[in-house]
Amino acid sequence: MLAEPFIAFFLLRNVRKILNNTSPDHTWDQTINILLYAIVIFFIADVILHIEVVSKWIWHGLLLGMIVFALLKKEFNATRTLMYAVLPFALISLVTDLFKSITFDKYKSINDYFDIASIFAIVWMIAMVVSSRKQQRVLRMEHEKTKQQEEQKKFIAAQKDELEKIVSERTAELRQQKEQVENTLSELKSTQAQLIQSEKMASLGELTAGIAHEIQNPLNFVNNFSEVNNELIEEMKNELTNGNMQEAIIIANDIKANQEKINFHGKRADAIVKGMLQHSRKSTGQKEPTDINALADEYLRLAYHGLRAKDKTFNAVMKTDFDKKLSADESGKGKINIISQDIGRVILNLITNAFYAVTEKKKLLNGNYEPTVTVSTKKISDTIEIKVKDNGNGIPQKVLDKIFQPFFTTKPTGQGTGLGLSLSYDIIKAHGGDLKVETKEGEGSEFIIQLPVV
Question: Strands across the sheet with 434-440, in order?
Fold first, then answer.
């Protein structure tokens, strides 16, 4: 019977600890302390006076009363696990004593069953007490966490007042900084527009000598055929004077043929000038049917002659491989809708870069090397591919990811703005296409423009 007093004492102490962890007001502390003192005093009296006959029922009543009381009170909810741990042992102990008192003979025959039940009750109690302690550990941690959160809230509230003061001071500074940033942004946008226009004018400068060469050819034809026509007109007058009408008609046909040639080459010069004007002015943003083969071929020749005019030693093999399906006929079939001056700038930039690459490689090798630039077009399903390939030194892998970034250039200072490929990439993306590069160091590069067919 000595187990009940110790279990009651143990139970009350743990109940007090649990309540202190879950309820900060300590309402039940005094009552529990009185009960603890009472249990100790009564236990000592029981040992000294040997009143086990009476005391065992008091211990049973006290233990079960404590359990039932705790299970019924809401404020003792946190102790339920502990109560359920002790309850089986308290009930088995009570039933054992009842059987022992009422039918002692019968008790002897089933004593083993009571012993087994007691052992299971003790194992249950130990397991539940361990579980309860784990729960209490969790509750204690949560309580400490809650306490820390409350302290943090107080700290945050104090910091909030200080921060509001700092924020009000910073807001005034930020307004001023915002105005400065807006002014700076406006200046940057203006500078960006100027840089883009400068890049366009730089590419126009590359074209100037080529344009002059291209215009000179049709002008030479115009001048030559004009002089021939003047001579033919004089001959025709003589023949008419002499009454040779048949000869006069033959001469008149020659004059007409020459006039048609003059007209053709005049239009050719006019087209070159218009192309130059389109390249130099701002894009209208309007797409128009364009012969992509003619556009690529024209910019290839203009870029070549422009570089030849600047450097008489410059020379390179130009190859073309144009898809015939992209060459426009008289009805306009074969043309694609693009902003021609924008795509022209992209093609020119890629061709000029290709010529630069092969020239640099030629300077390095200074021997058995034939610089070659190839421009090709191809229609693949609903996509147009324009390729500009060179057999230069290629692009180093370490800078390959940077070539489309604004202001990045591998050219020496003063020879490149670093905007050409960046603007080209943006133009192709604006057309719904893509600009890719395939390169191998020491063997060359190939830039691929992919445009959707509209």
Answer: 317-321, 372-380, 383-390, 444-452, 434-440
Q: What is the number of residues in the chain? A: 454
For residues 375 and 379, give the distance between their C-alpha atoms in angstroms, rounded to a whole number.
14
- Give the chain's domains with CATH numbers: 3-156 (no CATH), 285-454 (3.30.565.10)
The 8-class DSSP code of residue 381 comes to T
CA distance 444 to 361: 10
Which residue in 127, 139, 291, 307 sits closest to 211, CA to CA? Answer: 307
Q: Residue 448's CB: how many other CB atoms inside 10 A?
A: 16
User: pLDDT tens, 324-354?
Assistant: 888 877 666 778 888 888 888 889 889 988 9
The residues near 353 (Cβ < 8 Å, ≥ 6 apart) are 420, 421, 447
Instruction: Dig out the tokens for 24 from the structure.
Output: 């900060």
CA separation for the pair 259, 265 (Å, rounded): 10
**315 token code pair:** 């020379």
Cα separation, 104 vs 98, whole angstroms: 9
Reading the block at residue 353, the tokens are 């870069």
Distance CA 229, CA 227 (A): 5
* Alpha carbons 210 and 353: distance in angstroms, whole number: 16
- Give 46's contacts (C-beta < 8 A, 6+ positions apart): 5, 52, 55
First to last CA, the chain: 100
CB 79 within 8 A of CB 18: yes
Q: Helix axis angle, 111-241 relative to 245-280, nearest 10°?
A: 150
Task: Convert 259-272 to b/e letters by CB count within 10 Å (16 or more is b).
Answer: eebbeebeebbeeb
Positions of the chain with pLDDT lower than 70, given as ranges: 1-2, 21-26, 52-53, 103-109, 111, 136, 139, 192-217, 221, 271-285, 330-332, 408, 412-418, 454
Spatial contact of 226 and 291, defined as CB atoms under 8 Å apart = no
DSSP 153-217: HHHHHHHHHHHHHHHHHHHHHHHHHHHHHHHHHHHHHHHHHHHHHHHHHHHHHHHHHHHHHHHHH
Listed residue (30, 8, 24, 39) closest to 78, CA to CA: 24
Quick check: 46 and 52 in contact, CB under 8 A?
Answer: yes
